[in-house]
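Render this sequence as a predicted structure.
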Amino acid sequence: MPKVKNEYLENKRNQILDAAFAVCKRKPAYDITMTDIVLETGMSQGGVYKYFNNIDLVLAALIDKSNLQGNYIEQIDKIMESGNAPNINLHNLFLVSEQYFSDMLISYNKVLFELSTFFAYHPERYERINKNVTTSSTFEYLTQCASRIIVSGVENGYFMPVMPVNDILAFIIASFDGIIRDVTLSKCYSGNSVPKSGFVFHEKNLIHCLYASTMYLLGKNHKER
């Protein structure tokens, strides 16, 4: 297929996804319809359905776009291949997570948060959408790499954990999930429906606290470099 033709098709596809993303800013991601997207694009129904013939394909493509945002996978790979000490690699992974979450807050966090909540109650819908997702989750890859550093560091005696390793890993993942949830709720939603705790949720400060807590649990001073 000629290059111009490929570029034209890709531009049209992105135009539709941009329209879907715009709709998601106004409505819960799990409530958007193909009609919403057609109206937002200004294209004909046939023009939109030529690229996406159902809403699940649109949502899968939005998840793919979120996973491809930035070059975080590449940054994570460089950290893992650096040969630095485990505490330095872990610190650098947490720095990547800070930037990743900050970037996602101004883009796809609301969409992913709403879909993950919806999927918890509708696993069959998750299966239908997820089978069309072609990219890896940056967050899952980041936590997998952090787990590898921690497990390896414990096995070779670099880390001296004060709690069972599996409990520490579960704590990290649960804490990340909580940070994503609370920061998303406080920054992406407004009105009386969002509980007001009296605290200001700043993702970078929270992740820094999580890093310090993790290093303590691993028997290390978080200020060591």
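Summary. The chain has eleven helices and no strands. Residues 57 and 65 are 12 Å apart (CA to CA).
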